[in-house]
Structure formats: C-alpha cells, structure tokens
Amino acid sequence: MKSYDERDEIGYLDDNSGYHWHGGKWNYRRVELWAKERGLLGESAVEYYRDTKAQTLKLMEEVGELAHAVAYRDEQGLKDSIGDCAVVLIILAAQNGMKFEDCLNYAWDEIKNRQGKLEDGLFKKD
Fold first, then answer.
1. Distance in angstroms (rounded) separating the CA atoms of residues 42 and 33
2. pLDDT reported for residue 15
3. Which of 96, 74, 100, 105 is nearest to 87 (CA)?
4. Which of 3, 29, 48, 119 qualifies as a FRET site for 97, CA 20 to 30 Å off?
5. What are the φ and ψ backbone dihedral angles of 80, each rounded to 5 degrees?
6. DSSP class of residue 38?
7. Which residues pair with 116 in a beta bridge?
C-alpha cells in the first residue's frame, strides 16, 4: 500500500472534500482516511471506538501529555502533543458528522470580535 504522502501526491486524497491543502503537505482528509482504515470512522467501525465518549477520553489523555510537555519545556513533546490533540479533534468532529475546519470557523466567528483583557498570560473576555 502506498504511503499517505504518496497517495496525496497522486491525488488520491484530493476528493473535493474541502480539506486538501495545496502543495500536498497536509490535509485533514489524511487523518479521516487513517481513522477510517482503523475502524474509528465508517459503517464497519466497532461501536466502542466510534463512541464520542471514548474519543473525548483520548483527547484528555493527549491534553495530559501536552501539559507534561509544557511543564517540562519539552519542545518536541509540545509539538507532538499539539498535533495529537488536533488528530483526535479531527476524528471526533468526523464521528459527529462535522468537519474540523467548520468547527474552527465556528469558534473563530465566536471570538473574532470578543473584547477583554490579558491577565496572568490568559485573555479573559468581558
């Protein structure tokens, strides 16, 4: 079987899903395909793994690893953990019939005009 990068280069993943990032370096569709091949998405998936609760628990595991990387100033761990969280969120969105990009756009629309102030390194909304 060809690698995901090779499949993308030949257009395997460019299916007008809205997820293809020109240049073939990254797209959300790769994650969805990976998840489908492992039974996390699609009709043949084992219900336990498709369960939103299970994927949410996986996200909490990844956030814990993210916190560890921040606490220990582990740059590689931070990069890995942020990516792992994004992968889990892409799968969670797909399991619920959503596209990750739509979720990002929805969140952006919620915060783009938000007013507030910076306190202790956190932006606190009014």
1. 10
2. 46
3. 100
4. 3
5. -60, -45
6. T
7. 125
Rounded Cα distance between 20 and 36, Å, is 17
Quick one: pLDDT at residue 123?
92
CB 25 within 8 A of CB 55: no
Question: What superfamily would CATH give domain 4-112?
Answer: MazG-like (1.10.287.1080)
The helix-helix angle for 52-71 and 75-95 (nearest 10°) equals 170
Q: In angstroms, what CA-CA distances link 12 with 1, 3, 49, 90, 125?
A: 12, 11, 26, 19, 43
Rounded mean pLDDT for each run of 10 residues along the chain, 126 residues in total: 48 46 63 88 58 89 98 98 96 89 94 94 91
Q: 13 with 32: CB under 8 angstroms? A: no
Its pTM stands at 0.75
Distances from the Cα of 25 to the Cα of 38, 40, 83, angstroms? 22, 23, 14
Query: Would you list the domain boundaries of the chain?
Result: 4-112
Cα→Cα distances 58→49, 86, 91, Å: 10, 11, 11
